[in-house]
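Record 1 of the preview.
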Amino acid sequence: MGKEENRGVFWEVAEGTGWVYFDRPERMNALTPDSLRALWGCLVELESRRDVRAVVFTGRGKAFCAGMELKGLDEATPLAARRWAREIQKITDRIAELPLPTIAAVNGVAMGLGLEICLACDLALATPSARFAFPEVRLGMIPGGGGTQRLVRLVGLRRAREMVLTGRLVDAETAEAWGLVNEVIPEAELRQRVKEWLEKLFQGERTALCLAKRCLSRSQDLDLARGLELEAESFTTCFATGEPSSRMRSFAGEKEGSGRAKVYSAGEEGPEEERGSGAPSASGRGAGEEGSAEEVRFEREEEPEEDLFE
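->
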């Protein structure tokens, strides 16, 4: 467990999940420069821990995060404003690029940087009291932490324009209809529902989840050909871990127990239609080759020496 005292961010690890809390309820969890430094340190720590398999962001009190604390921004020079925007973007980029699944549990207002953090997460759940907005134009500026870029990719250009250009406050029901959040949950059930989503995520293997996140994220800035190349590369990397082999064998064993597949002992022949000439087992050995005590035989041919479609 870790805690950043009096800096607006509190984090803990429980049951394989890093829980990050925005913790300035008296200011609707608005973030200060000190809070951002604490948040950065929190992300670095959680990413480095092997016992953490997912990260959840939520707020203390009745707000998720109302954005940046405005005090001092009115005196910022153009150069300072640019530096500030780049620093905020580093935070949201770091959240988006975490090699772990991330969930925004939006329990109230998510405005400005708070909404940008929500957009950077892989999944978002909200309570009926949640509200989403980019009010920056009314203050003479624009979202600076990735909001103009991630919002349009998530809800489309028309709706993004509506939110950014007018500062519209979007309620939870509308946010769900637009795809801004995955689900709206009664406040009393939010934490339990988050845990149910986490259980689903934990069924995936760590490396596969990381690579899937990478491919999905890059799909928005790569053309189709390069995206497919990245997908093939990532698919290949999965098999370098050995996880697909072990998990498919386990799956085949479960199917055998339910009567939907049969596991044959080495040397035992299956039905005529399953045998085929030199059909490899789950271990990649051909029929008749020495193998482990039990092998699952699949209906497939030997891997061709040349590409199938050339």
